[in-house]
Amino acid sequence: MRMARQWSMMGLGPKDFRIRETEVVVPDFGEVLVRTEAVSLNFRDKLVMENGMGLPLSFPFVPVSDMAGMVEAIGPGVTRFALGDKVISTFMPGRLDGKGLGNARNPPYRTLGGAHPGVLSEYVTFPADWFVAAPKTLDAGEASTLPIAGLTAWTALIESGHLKAGDKVLVQGTGGVALFAVQIARAHGAEIFVTSSSADKLERVRGLGANHMLPRDGWVDRLLDLTEGYGADHVLDIAGGTGFAQALKAVAVGGRVSLIGVFEGLEISAHAPDLLLKAPIVQGISVGHRRALEDFVRAVDAIGLKPVIDRRYRFEEAEEAFAHLDRGPFGKIVIDV
Asked: 189 φ, ψ to 5°?
């Protein structure tokens, strides 16, 4: 019997979060066994561990949704991959293209590290359809940052946002999604505005190609001054809550607001005339589908995009990695397995 180590918890909190051993599952029909080389952390991983986010978790629960690894065994009927292929996970298994898998009463949210097991494990055995080929130009740690943070920014700006050269893009903060958005927008010739309460982080994001650095206090007025009242064609709202009103004040007439994060709360509010008179598109971004991730991987290789990683931790240092996530990293946190 082959065994592997994985981080798991026995209850929300997280309760009794530690390394345990588990049997490596031999892949069945349509499945592949992947040796995990790296995982990356997202804020939602922390929320799932703390309160479950209303998801049907089963314990012991293995957290984390984003990983990169190598195919080590293949079950019958698998044609997508061969032994030794480098792969990355998809966040919403089964969502290959188009709309999410759900309905108005039960919105789609069946994800890895939630309704499905997570990937903070030395090995995972999943259906082959749950993976895509990894970029050829990134190492495993860099590739592991793409499935949520990278794809979320890509979906907001490219897949759904149809970004074009010369568009004005406002990005909130300097987390993983925000920095991917800056790099994607820069590659497409956009004019980029970034907000942050940290002068040091603003200076660092300038090096990624952002054009205008805005302090968090008063950023809407500063944006409107810099654009002579025009506003931003694309606003990436990573805060949500009452901050959504600021996003609508900042968006240009006929522009687009992408609601991505809920750091300031699940309930959003805004001034109705900004919505009625400007007639912007307001889109909720729930990461994206597998085909868009495949498009993004090709773009990463084509333009030489390099994800921003704040720090890498060893597998045994997962608790320290989550503590760093709590402090607010510049970019992504990676755990090398």
From this structure: 80, 25
